Structures are given as C-alpha cells and as structure tokens.
C-alpha cells in the first residue's frame, strides 16, 4: 500500500519511478551514497536527517489491542497487561517495552488470523496488530469472528511513515515539496482514500 501511495504521488508530480526492494540496511546505505534517491517507508529519526530529507507524514502505523466486545477490559496501562493472556504473532516486533517484558503472558501464534480466532473463542483475552493490517484481515474473517471483537481505545505504539530523499540528489528539496503537495491533493480529490479502499484498508473509525 505504501508503495502505491508513494508511486502515485510521485507520478502525479511528473517523476518516473523505478522500485527496488532491498534489505533495510542496504537501502539506507544506498541512500547515503546517492545510489538510491528515495526510501518510501521511513520512520522519522534525527540520525536519518544526516543522509536525507523527510517528507511530511503520509501514513500512520498504529499497533492496537483488540478484545472481545463483551469483555470489561478498557484502556490499559502496561502493568495491567500482565493480568491477561495475549496472543502474539511469532517474530513480530510490536514495541521495545512490550517485546522485552518477560512478565507478559504471551501466547505465540503463527499469524493474526489464528490470534483473532483464539480471541473470539475465549482462549486468550487480547491480541494486537497494526490497525491497517488488522482491518484488512478482519474483513476476510467469518462474521461470527468479526462480530465478536473490537479495538481497545488508544494504541501501543504509533509510527508515522515518510519518504526520505537522499541529500546526494541535488533536487531533494523539490522532490519532497512536490510529494507533499501531491499527497495533499490526493487526499482532497479522493485518490488517497480510493487507494486505501483498493487495499481493503478503508473502514469505519472503530469496529
């Protein structure tokens, strides 16, 4: 989805894009050396400003908890999470504090679909996932699963996505300005929302 949003905005601004998928460390090195012009899905950090110019945020990734609708569980502190069984996807990085907390009662599962079905079947108390990913996958679940669950208020973590344009590119400031302008225009004319819908990620504010 991020690729489609970025490619659409850059093409509308008059740029020709060539997408190459490489490991993250290699992508950063390529950007710093000027071999790559743009990283399409960079989280903001001060260190990365040394090698590139960030665009404005074009997408927000939020990791959110999901519970059964009839559950009395409400907004939770980190310490309160210790009381509940939580289905987690093996190998998934949720947040440093959550991932490293050995007191949490985590139930490892293969994927989000398994996690949310266990939640609906009352085998765990909570699960969690990136909100866009969760909405997409919930739309594929049976109604008896989807109808039993809902997001808890708030989020475990939030990370804004930006493009990062290499400072080695002499036109980096113009590329960022053009991209930001087209993202704003896409939101105004409905193109942005349509891209979300095409990826199955546009939905009501809450389940």
TrEMBL record:
Q: Which UniProt keywords apply?
A: Signal
**Gene3D superfamilies from the entry?**
Periplasmic binding protein-like II
Give one Pfam hit by family name: SBP_bac_3
Q: Where is the Solute-binding protein family 3/N-terminal domain?
A: 3-196
Q: Which PANTHER family match?
A: ABC TRANSPORTER SUBSTRATE-BINDING PROTEIN (PTHR35936:SF25), MEMBRANE-BOUND LYTIC MUREIN TRANSGLYCOSYLASE F (PTHR35936)
Q: Which family does it belong to?
A: Belongs to the bacterial solute-binding protein 3 family.
Give the protein's recorded name: Amino acid ABC transporter, periplasmic amino acid-binding protein
């Amino acid at each position: 989805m991020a690729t489609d949003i970025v490619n659409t905005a850059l093409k509308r601004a008059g740029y020709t894009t060539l997408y190459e998928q490489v490991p993250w460390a290699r992508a950063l090195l390529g950007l710093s050396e000027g071999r790559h012009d743009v990283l399409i899905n960079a989280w903001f950090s001060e260190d990365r400003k040394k090698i590139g110019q960030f665009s404005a945020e074009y997408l927000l990734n939020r990791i959110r908890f999901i519970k059964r609708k009839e559950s009395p569980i409400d907004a939770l502190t980190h310490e309160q999470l210790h009381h509940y069984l939580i289905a987690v996807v093996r190998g998934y990085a949720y947040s440093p504090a959550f991932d490293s907390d050995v007191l949490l009662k985590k139930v490892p599962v293969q994927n989000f679909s398994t996690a949310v079905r266990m939640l609906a079947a009352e085998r765990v108390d909570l699960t969690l996932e990136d909100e866009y990913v969760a909405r997409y996958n919930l739309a594929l679940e049976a109604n008896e699963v989807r109808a039993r669950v809902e997001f808890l208020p708030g989020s475990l973590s939030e990370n804004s996505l930006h493009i990062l344009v290499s400072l080695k590119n002499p036109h980096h400031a113009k590329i960022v300005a053009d991209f930001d302008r087209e993202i704003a225009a896409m939101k105004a004319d409905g193109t942005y929302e349509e891209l979300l819908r095409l990826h199955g990620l546009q939905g009501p504010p809450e389940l």
